[in-house]
Each structure stands twice: as structure tokens, then as C-alpha cells.
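Hello,

Our lab assistant flagged a job as stuck in the queue for most of the afternoon. It eventually completed. Since we weren't sure the result was trustworthy after the delay, we are filing this so someone can double-check. Below is the sequence as submitted and the structure that was eventually returned. Let us know if re-running is recommended.
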Amino acid sequence: MRRPVSSLNFSNRGLESSSGAREPEYSLVLPLKPLRIGFVSPFSPLKGGIARFSGLLREALQAQGYEVISLPFRKLYPDFVTNGATEGHSLALDGSLVLFNPLSWPSAIRSLMARKPDIILISYWTALLAPFCWLLRRLAGVRVVVLLHNFSSHDPLFFEPLMQRLLASSADAFLTLSGVVSQELSAAIPQSRSMQLFHPVYDPEPDAKALSRAEARRALDLNAGAPVLLFYGYVRRYKGLDLLLRAMPAILLRESSLKLLIAGEFHEDPEGYRRMIKQLGIQGSVDLRPGYLSGEQSALLFAAADAVVLPYRSATQSGVVQLAYGYGVPVIVTPVGALPEGVLHGRTGWVAPDVSREGIAAAAAEFLESRGRLSETVSAIAEFRRDSSWEAFASRAGGFLETEAARK
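-- returned structure --
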């Protein structure tokens, strides 16, 4: 655990007593208060990957000896943006900060600064946050470090270049989670100070019951011996579910018993996907389960799956990969953004040759050919998990925040 201490040392080294005898040496070290980090981010009870990431990071920073002062968002998006999904919605009315309501920003920032943080860390994943970052830096009076989950939005916005320039003037330094984001940052803001870290692995939910594959498949009414692929999480166009569905006929030619589970909340009309499944003639091989997933439900799905598929059209990184690894399940990903950075091809998963139904089908074929060696995959994932812990992440991030807080 990090224990900040004073650099002021008081010593009687070399002094003599009145009798002429030399006093024993000692040194007095005065403890300092721990670094106080103001952390602006979605937190539980908001849903979604950013909220979960931020909660775990807060715990890890506190375990390192830092004091973390949270400024949570009460809500992120209007209802019409999320199509009824729970992402961005609160189960309680904690806090006053609403991303889409600028009138809530000044008072929320002042409430944070009243608690006198030494430095501010803010999660950033959309260009819509740039104006808030600009205001935060001007009202805060302390240094601001931006934790970049994404530098460019998943869904391109026409005003994104303007927002990136605004962000450049709104941050003193950056933390990134992948090489791809670091490269984007360097290209857009060449003089920025930054540290590249990684996306830690998510462990299974602590209250989720551990199930064997056989138990999970019985509970889900799945064939015990057939291969099962899982598409998990929010459904948005950039995540490429339509590409995966179009790849299914070719995948089923190789293994007709294969089942695809699709589980998560839809930001689009699920009826369009149901029509596509019917048109492709793959109804018997696809199990569509729309809706919010609890920790227990997620544990059941991952326990049943042989591999998790991320057929993304675009990405920076994805917490779904880290969640799959937390359950010991390999992944099949497209070669976009930082997804290949988190996959040891043939060991912890498989990277498609390109972003197409043919490429996804080819990666799935490699997975099917490797099913007899999945014990080796499990060992490789366990090794990856050890190297990608929250403790290691918080230690490096905390050191960077200390250095930034000390700058004048």
C-alpha cells in the first residue's frame, strides 16, 4: 500500500550530549495526508462498462492508500437516445450532475471543489464531455487528468474535431488504456503528457454463483456437447451483430449443432435482427435474449459459452474482452482498434482476418478446430489475468497522478 510521507526529516545526527558522548542517531519522518483524488465519472447505480470500471478503479486506488472523492453522474443521456436501455439511467437519485444538462455542471463542480481535492481525474468516452471538461478545468483550480476510454466516439459526430481541440485545452495530462488511443492522442495533441496503461480484467461478480458448464447449459436448455458462442452486452450498430448473423450460415456449415446466444440491451429495434435471423434461416441456431443482465444472469451465460464473439466494426478497447477473460472464456474479435492488443491469437482467442462476415466465419472456424485444446487456452487466459490486475493499474495510475499533482 502506498504511504505518502513527508520529505522533512529532523535528525540529531552528529550532535554530542553535555557529557561529550555522542547521542544515538534517529530520524523523525512526519506523515503527510494521502493524495486526494477527485474522480468524476459514472458510478453504480448507473449501468454500463464505464460505471463498473470506475467503481473498481476507485476501490483499487483506495487500497493503494489514496483518498478518492467521487463526483458521480446522476444521468448521462435522455431516454430517447438509449432506446429504453438502462445504460445512463440511475436506480437512485444520487448526485446532481447530468451530462446532457449544462445547468447542472457548475454547482456539481463547486460541490467537488469544496472537498479540496489535490487533483481531478475524469473519465472520458464521448465528445459530448469536452465542454464539461473545459468548464471543470476553469472552475477547479487544480490540475485535471483525463482518463481516455475513447478519444473518438464510436458513432462519428460531425463536430468531433472541434470537441477534440476543446479537450486539448481542458486537460493537463492523459491516461490511456490502449496503444490505439495513445496514437490518436499523440496525433491530435502532440505535446500532451500521457501514460499508456491497459484495461484490467474483470473478475466475476462476487455474488454470482459459480456454475459448471454442464449446470449452466442445463439451466439455459442448451445441448451439453454442442459449441456455444456468446454475443454479450449493449447492441449498437458499431458492434456488428448483423455481421455475425450473416456469418452464421457459413459457420453452421462447419458445425451444424453450434448455438449463438445474443444477450444484452438493444439501442436499436430488436425486431430488425429477428427479421434478419428468419431471412437467413438460422432461427434454430440463434437464441436472442434482449434485456438488462444481472450479475447472476451474466455468470450463467459465460459459464455456458465456449467463446465470446466481438464482431465490431469499430472499437478502441472493450470491457467485454476483459469480462470474458475474468470467466476464463476465450474471445473471437475483429481486427479493429485495440481489440487485437488484448488477444494472443490461438491462445486467449482468435482475431478475424478482416471486418466482414467471411472474416468472422474464418475466425470461428479456427475456434472450432481448437476446441480439443481449450485447456491450453484456459491456462493462457489465467496468465493474462495475472498480468492485468486492478492493483497493478492503480499503482501506476496513482504514481502518475502524484507526479501531476506536484507540478506547478
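-- support follow-up --
The delay was a queue issue, not a problem with the job. The result is valid. The chain has 14 helices and 15 strands. Confidence is low (pLDDT under 50) at residues 3-24, 26-30, 86-93.
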